[in-house]
Every structure is written in C-alpha cells, then in structure tokens.
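Hi R.,

Here are the chain sequences for the assembly we discussed:
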Amino acid sequence: MAQSAAGKSNKEQKYDRQLRLWGDHGQEALENAHVCLINATATGTEILKNLVLPGIGAFTIVDGHKVTGEDVGNNFFLSISSIGKNRAQAATELLQELNSDVSGNFVEESPDKLLDNDPEFFHRFSLVIGVQLIESTCLRLAGVLWNAGVPFLVCKTYGLVGYMRLAVKEHTVVESHPDNALEDLRLDQPFAELKNHIQSYDLDNMDKKDHSHTPWIIVVAKYLEKWYNEHNYQLPKNYKEKEAFRQLIREGILKNENGVAEDEENFEEAIKNVNTALNPTKIPSTVQDILNAEGWKNITAQTPAFWVMARAVKEFVENEGEGKLPVRGTIPDMIADSEKFINLQNVYREKAMQDASVVSKHVESLLQSVGKVCVYKSKKKCKNAAFLRVVRCRSLADECSVELVNKDEITSCMDNPDSEMVLYLMLRSVDRFFQQHSRYPGVYNYQVEEDIGKLKLCVNSLLQEYGLNVNVKDDYIHEFCRYGANAIKMITHQFVPFNNTFIYNAMSQTSATFQL
Amino acid sequence: MNLLLFSLFREKKRRRIEELAQSQKKAVDGGNEDSQDWDGRWNHVKKFLERSGPFTHPDFEPSTESLQFLLESCKILVIGAGGLGCELLKNLALSGFRKIHIVDMDTIDVSNLNRQFLFRPKDVGRPKADVAADFINSRVPGCNVVPHFKKIQVFDESFYRQFHIIVCGLDSIIARRWINGMLMSLLIYEGGVLDTSTIIPLIDGGTEGFKGNARVVLPGMTACIDCTLELYPPQINFPMCTIATMPRLPEHCIEYVHILQWPKEKPFGDGVALDGDDPQHIQWVFQRSQERAAQFNITGVTYRLTQGVVKRIIPAVASTNAVIAAACASEVFKIASSTYIPLNNYLVFNDVDGLYTYTFEAERKENCSACSQVPHDLQFPSSAKLQDVLDYLIESTALQMKSPAITATMEGKNKTLYLQTVASIEERTRPNLCRTLKELGLTDGQELAVADVTTPQTVLFRLNYTS
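And here is the predicted structure of the full complex:
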C-alpha cells in the first residue's frame, strides 16, 4: 500500500479505522467474499449493512416475500414506495446505496424453491446467513451447506430475544488477536544467540547510566544465572522461591554513597515481571491440538494451506525447534536506552526470521512431495504460531437429532430456570408451533390467550421427544406469545468466532454462548 | 430505584396524554391520520405496548396511549452523530420516537464513511448533525430530528431540561462528564430529599474496536459517570525523557516530531498548530519521524502509524457500534414506555473471541465529586504548596481534572487562586502556585471552589489541614 499522503487511496482513507483492526490482508479477504442473505427482514438487512459498510465484495439477497406495511415500519432499508414489490429487490437498492465499492444482487425466490431446483446455487458463497427461516427450510439448507463446506449463520429475533447459530465443519484462524497474550521471551530456555547476547553484559562492571538503562529481560536473565548456581539449575517454582528471586534482584539495585538504593526503574520492572517472565516455555494446548489433529496427518494436493503450515510447524517443533514453537520475535517496550533495547529486540527478531525460514523450507518440501509449488507467505503464520485456533461447530442435523442432541449442556444450564437456555428451548418450541399451525403464536391480540396453551403443548412435546427433564417456566411461554420474530470474523479468518449458539436477552441485557 | 423512576415518568406521561385528549386529537389505530402512518406501521412496537406479559415492569399497564406518547410527546436528545449516533437515530426513529434533537460539533470526514451510514462521499465537510437529521427525516416519514451543529457546552439548563431522556454516543470522557454534571445540576433537593421529577435519565454508550459498553444513569439515584472514573483505562502518554533522548518504538519517534520538533521548526508558519486531518502536516511528521527512527535503528514508522499516534486514533467498525446503539436504544424504549425494568446498570461487550457480554450494577461512590452532594475533602499540610493541590486535582484517579481553576471566598470576596485558561489571569496567579496554603491565607476547613472542563458546575472542596 502506498505510504505517502498523495498515494493514500480514497478506499484506504475510508476504511482506515477498520484497517487498524484487521489489516490490509483482512480487508482483501473481505473484498473477495460474496455473502448470501436469506430473507431481507429488519434483522437481515441490519446484518448486511454491517458487511456492506466495511466493503464486502458482493452480496446476494434471496427472498420470495413481497414488502408489507409492517416490514417498512421496522426496516430502515425499505421505504413506503417498496410496498408490494419483491422484498429482495427493494432491500438491495437501499443497501447497495450505502457503498459503491460493493456489488449487490437479488433473487426473487424462496429458499425452498431454490433448494428444490438448484441447491448448488448456494455453493458459490463464502458465507450464507439465514434469517427468520422456518425449521424445515433451515435444516434442509443446513444439510446442503454442510456438505458443500459453506459456513452457515442462522439468526432469529423474536421480541426481545436474539439467537445466532454458527454451523461450519471447520474454521481456521491464524490471527486470533488475543487480548492478553503472554510474551515469548525464552528466559527458561534461551536460544544460543540470546545466551550470547546476555553474556555480553557484565552488570557488576557497568557505569551507573548503563546499569539503570539495561533492559529488564537482561537483568532477569543475569540474576537467573546467579540463582541457578545456588539452586541446582532449577527455576524458582513457588511463591516463596519467586519472592526470594525478586529479593535477589532487589539487592542488585545500585546504592549511593550513603547505602540508599538508587532509583533504577529497569530493576523495578524486572521485579514486577518475574512472575510471568519465568513461565516455562511451552506450547499452548489449543495449538497442541492443532499440531496433532488427526484429520490432517497426511498431506495431499488438496490439503488447505492452514494444515500444510500446521504440519510444517509440527516438523519444526519435532526437529530444529527442540520441542518449542518458532520464536515469536517481539518484546514489550521497557525502560532502556535506545541502543540496548534495539539490540535486544533484534536478537529476538532475527531468531524469529530464522525459525520462519526453516518452517518455510518444511512447507516447501511438504508441497513438493505432493507435486505443488509454494505460493503463500508463512511469516505471518509463524509469528502467530501460538495463537492458531480452529473452531469446529456441530451440524444443525446433529443438534436436532434425538440421538446426538446435547442433553447434558441443556439440562445442566436449566438447573437455573432463568438461564438463557430457556430462551433456546422456547425458540425451538415456537418453530414446532409454526410447523403445526402454519403461523407464529400470538400474531393477533385475540389469539394470545389460547396460544399460550398451544405453545405449552409444543414445549412439552419438544422436551419429551429429546428426553429433557427440565422445567420451562410458564412465564416464558406467555412472553413468547406476546411477541408475535459473526460474519466478518468468518471471512477474514481473524479473531475467533463463537461456537456455536449465542443467545441475547434484551430484557435483562444478558447473553450466553452454548455448544449444542 | 426503578419504582420511583417509573412513577415519576408515568406521571409526566399521564399529564401529557391528558393534554393530548383535551386538544381533541384522534387516536387512529396505528397512529395519527396527519402523521403519514400506513397500515401495520407500528405493529412491531404495539405488541410491547398493548399487551401484558410476565416480565414487564410491575407498574406497566398495556394501553394504546403509550404509542401516542412515543409518537407525539416523548422528547429525546441524542448527543453525538458519529458511529453510535447514526445507529441511535435509526433505532429510535424506527421505534416510534419522533421528537429527537441531535447535537454534534463535527463535520464529516472520509474516514467516517465505513460506519457512519447516514453520510455519503458527497457529504464530506458538512456538519454531521445536519446531514444525519436530513437523512432520517426523509427515510422515516413523520420523524422530526432537529440538528444542532454546536458543542454541548454552549447550551444551558433550559435547553437540557426539555428532554425526557438523553442518550450519548460520545468519543470523549470530558464531554461525558460535562453532560453528567449538567444533569446533576438540574436536580432539585427539598429538605435533603431528591425531587424525582427533576431526574432526566442518561443512557451512555461507548465503543472501541471490538469492545463497547452501555450504561443507564439515573442522576441522583444510581452510579453516575464520575462514580466509575476508574473504569476508564488511562490514556497512554509516553514519558518525556523517552521521547526526547531514548526512543525505542516507532511511536516514540513520532511523538518526538509531534511534540518537540514541530513547535520548534514551525514548518507551516508561526502559530500554525499541527492538524491531524491535514495530509500535508501528517506527511511532514511522517518523513521527520522516519529520519529520527533511522538515527536509532528503529523500524516500523509508517504513514498509518504516524496519523494514528498524532490523532490518537481509535480503531472502529460498524458492528460494534450497531450492538451498543441497539442496547442503548432498547433502554430508551424501556424507560419511555415503562414496559420492562431497565438495565441496572452497566453492560460490557467484547467480540474479539466469540461474543461476550457482562452486566453488573456499578455502585455509587459515597464521596463522588459529581453526584454526592458532599464537599470533597482535600487533605494537605498547611505547608503544602498550591501546586501540590493542583497536581492532586489532575492526577487523582477519582477526579482526573484537566485544567482546574481554584477560587476561595476570603474576607467576603471571591479570590482566584489559580486559573490556567485565560493567559492574563494565568500569568497573574502563577506565583501563587509556589506559595504555601498557609501563606495564601487559607484556613483549616476553608471551602475551595474548583471549575474545570470536566463539569459545568463548580465542585466544592473542603480543605483539611493534616499539620
């Protein structure tokens, strides 16, 4: 991307605030994506708005309904002049208008018809979002998308309850951007170049200025050497030992002629960081799982890039890495003079680059063994090796099958009868109601009373069918008769999506995530 | 808290509905004949207002008049027409609110367009409030948004008093504290008891990247903005010695050029301040930052980073604003309609890893400088200098004042001890900073009045000598 002001494109300016979150490569992924929305309800158009504004490549709305007065009342992307028109077409116009970079399309057809006549229509999308789908259509579509490997996001809003369900066999994340990641300092197992660099310091024979501006990483390393000599080469393990180690460092603070400790902020930083700096270097369990994943043990020409990389990283770990991941290469800022800091930073950076190129060689030879040439950059994945994540969401078919339903999760959540899980059960019951009565409960005022009873029957039959021994309070049944109805992460493969059901309760402003 | 609030609100509503009935307006199903409503328009709202339910507020009574109140009487003030403001206007307009005022002092920039969806490329340079109001008024027939292209501080109590509820989508803690203070100043206490009809609920939303929060403040009853100042993360300011002599990060190099080199070299003329929105200014800073970085072998200075550091840019995306604005708008609806018990009182949202929300009740601070009615104690030895008091007012996490002006009543007269914001007074009062409190003639138990940008009212402090 151009660096100077003159070269800064209009798009870069427009997207500046979001580029700072997911970078140019993330934006590229977004611009190459084509999303399908089924049903341009208020919820549906709201979701699309949040994809169109940041510049998704294209969207297609599938909707067989005609716009009603009620639709226009709660949907910002429909106007009075659209009443009677096809809803997909009407919404596309006003959504398209939000961002000229995006290409908007519509199909005036119900999803059921498309599933009957041309199910492969859905294969072209990066993501399909289904809003206010009736259960039977939802399950049919879910089956098609699951087999085609297209991620499916189901959304429902019903009164003050929101529901989202993500169904994808496997979603890989390279840049998960964790909030509070621990640093990769290798103080417990310093690599050769780090060892040499540490050797180059002689804390006992430095002038005051240098002593006070030595990076805390070096300080900790030096005192660790002292500690090792007196403790049989064992790291300080428990609180008592870490306290003693901190004290050891504290005694190293220079004193003035009156024996009073000088103000050495770098030593204070060292003491503060002892707790985390001495964490043994190890591979996080989430990454272990990825490296040992069964499904990708054998690399073929069809293996996705993520798994080829994972295999290459695994080979690195088992050979050159000596049981450790490639060095991340970053260090936090710390009190130090510029030269000392930059030199130390470069030691880590150069090692990281070295490790990354070793991993690249593994990638190359893996690909060669299946007759492919390496075309992608591995540096980003190496830097993020500790943050790799894989999310696997169960299929809707499994969630709804009597044999595979997640009884344990549901029953244990319902120990608290006001858990958001009850809202999930209500939504399932409402689907059942629709199946039986071809309408939702309580659409008209006169129906509300009677529908409470009918909905209760649906709740009970649902619980019985799945063998769920839980109690759904009548209050919730009443409430549902009253009502009368995490895409960007998937596309950029950054940040971690939820797995797999999210329920939002606007009455209490609370939410919960369940794996069903 | 809730019962009191709702009785007061419903009183206001009931009175207004009587007025409406007296003026003989017809209530047609779905709204007023003159109001451009069409069949079914408000169905989604009526289901909440006209039906009873098990989770509604204990005081709630379903009626067709609630919708009328929303459509015809309820007056909402939205502060900020940016990421949150645009979403709030859309949500409120579609929920039936028609009397909406919006205040924003900014004009539209290209970088707003990725989320502030009421604006288009042709609107760049125009006032946000004006463009937002125009868009909503034309897209949602019957809605009457009144724009104010002004700073919130130019309005006084008479302006704010007219609103039933105030919603904020601000990007500044100072502004939040100011409006908080304004609403506190509207409260009337009679014999030490709060007159609840003087309460105007404040719904406050904030976002940053993938994180956000929404809260409900009932001035005088719940925790206010100042009660929870410590919740806000401190702004990152690099130490001067790092910037001046020992840079290590590209950010240090940029701040050096920004803070030290620019004032010295005045590259665009005398008295021309650095404008973070001027590409030429940023380009100048960028090039010099690269030079400085090269001197110290520091890599990583980019144009984007330069602009980010100079303007203290916070990353932003449409979806977070949509979520937080939706939560805020739900609360406005709940309070205006008394349908459900509102959020009590703080919601935190984060969707970096999955989707996470956390709701809790922030507690009132006993000695909150904004809402506690109790003069804040200042403990100092009589030998302390006025500078020490000034430093405390600025650095204390509970107060976090920006440029406080201190006055005391001595011998019946108001004496300004120190004031920074007017150059001539600053010069005159500067010597006081080095004087001790005793030398200045301040006695133990003396009341000091402090004014600051963070609050529209002066804050009273009581001086307590420790020695």
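Chain B has a mean pLDDT of 87. The CA atoms of residues 55 and 340 of chain B lie 7 Å apart.

Let me know if anything looks off.

Best,
T.
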